[in-house]
Amino acid sequence: MTPAARCVSIIPCPRAGRQGFQVGGGTVEDRFEQERMATVEALRAKGVDPYGSRFDGVAPVAQIAGAYEEGRVVRVAGRMTAMRNFGKAAFADLRDSSGKIQLYMKQDMLDPASVEVLQVLDLGDVIGVDGKLGKSRTGEITVFASGLRMLSKALLTPPEKWHGLRDVEIRYRQRYVDLWANPDVMATFRRRTQIIGAIRRYLDERGFLEVETPMMQAIPGGAAARPFVTHHNTLDLALYMRVSPELYLKRLLVGGMEKVYEINRNFRNEGISTRHNPEFTMMEVYQAYADFNIMMDLTEGLIGSAIDLLHPSRKISYGLHELDFTSPWRRATYDQLLKEHAGVGLDDEAGLRSKAKELGRDPNGEIAAVADRLFESCVEHQLIQPTFVTHYPITLCPLTKASATDPRFAERFEMYIAGMECANAYTELNDPIDQEHRFRNQVEQAEGQLRVVDEDFVRALKVGMPPAGGLGIGIDRIVMVLTNSPCIRDVILFPLMR
RNA sequence: GAGGGUGUAGCUCAGUUGGCAGAGCACCGGAUUUUUAAUCCUGUGGCCGUGGGUUCGAGUCCCACCACCCUCACCA
């Protein structure tokens, strides 16, 4: 009996597998599972292996349907998701990762072993099929089976055939059901892989080197988020899951990797929402001798390459919005957008404070902070079309280089799509003394929170880091936009569940 | 962390004013050799999220807890 003996059907307990769920005294055997177990035994008794092995020469069903040829001998395999039984014959739907195809299984067209399989076939079983391609009376492309092999007998009942698996909690927890029961889900994750592939290709073609830097760090740095804490036993060492790879990628700039990037997980011990998962995929890229303007072009280029792959028209529906990614994307200053959506500019201190008060936000404190509250309240969610926001007030960006031409502003942009922050880029600070001061200020201001100066990083800057542009892109959010997914959990295969 | 919502059969969902626990799909048995949510007949299936309380009587009302969803807060 498995540890989750109580959890007998595919769905019944969302927390299957968790410790402590096992019921003491007398396991509850599910009726459906018992029936299918009996089938397994019956097959074995007849010398048929209910859990088959290697099955060579399988073609994707979409490919077979796409290159239809009357009478062609084909071999397919997949999960049986529907069956229409007529006694001595039956139609069934066979689904693989490419799509589905109809099977026609008639007893007098099958060898005896296959008839045994047909007689015990249940929804959800994984089967292998040999047959000839043809069309049914209604014109549907159909494999007319001559041989059936049971490749894996399903013991648990699949979701309902018409409505499918809707319960979002079960979908996230039992993605292994969700993926085949809801074809859109499979399509979304296929696209996710394609998007990341396009981004990699774009960077690789331009001479960027993909690297992997530590996810377990003794000093978590590169972002202000709270880290997850863990512990190394034999070293008796506190370690932190990284909140950002930034400080390591910059060390690589120092080491002479002039164009470097990483696509991998970051971990932030913060709230969860439709746009935040505790572990999420970030792409960070650094380019020596560049600045944030070059990063802006890079952002548009690499996201554009992914869009061209999936949406060549560059027009994308996202929820109720029609997004237009035709180049060039809008570039606007922070001040400009504040005036546009909040009706006050950065130079109008009294106006900013009264507007904040009007909106019920804190009107006190440093004026840039007040402005930023207004930016959050009034501007961010209005940035539906892809928009680069530039010229952030320098005090909002303590780790960015100030503009050489106007030191009130930082050399930074954020890029928004559908009201979501999707990218963030700087002209990176490479003055070690300046950096050290800013680190120490941060530590002083981080009351109670863990914050330690990464002395080795300062040392690295002292060795000399070339001036550089740095860019971070939230991959999950880009995938959300490009797959019309309203929730970050819809684009993460196994999102965190309590 | 705050507010709102949801939780009923394996799945998708009804459940009236507090009065016998329901449907469709799935499943068991029967009929059916071109259907596609196949059809027809028949039957099985319930810890109503968990634990308390009110009541003659609770799926329904009250309290607490658990999980999930939404909004907000946190998140340079």
Description:
- With 498 residues, the chain is an alpha+beta fold.
- Among the domains are: 61-152, Nucleic acid-binding proteins (OB fold (Dihydrolipoamide Acetyltransferase, E2P), Beta Barrel); 182-329 and 385-491, BirA Bifunctional Protein, domain 2 (2-Layer Sandwich).
- Helix content is 32%, strand content 24%.
- It has helices at 31-45, 61-66, 112-119, 168-173, 175-181, 183-205, 246-255, 292-310, 334-342, 349-358, 367-379, 432-445, 455-464, 475-482; strands spanning 73-85, 89-96, 99-106, 126-135, 141-152, 209-210, 216-217, 229-232, 237-241, 259-267, 279-288, 315-318, 321-324, 330-333, 387-390, 412-417, 420-427, 468-474.
- The strands form four sheets. The chain has an eight-stranded mixed β-sheet with strand order 6-10-11-18-17-16-15-14, sandwiched between helices.
- β16 and β17 form a beta hairpin.
- α5 packs across α6 and α10 crosses α11 (367-379).
- The model is unreliable at 1-28 (pLDDT under 50).
- The protein binds one RNA strand of 76 nucleotides through residues 8-12, 14-15, 30-33, 35, 82, 84-91, 93, 102, 104, 106-108, 122-123, 136-138, 140, 142, 156-170, 172, 223-226, 268-271, 273-274, 276, 372, 396-400, 424, 497-498.
At a glance:
Among the domains are: about 60-150, OB fold (Dihydrolipoamide Acetyltransferase, E2P) (Beta Barrel), CATH 2.40.50; about 180-330 and about 385-490, BirA Bifunctional Protein, domain 2 (2-Layer Sandwich). Helices cover about 30% and strands about 25% of the residues. The protein has 14 helices and 18 strands.
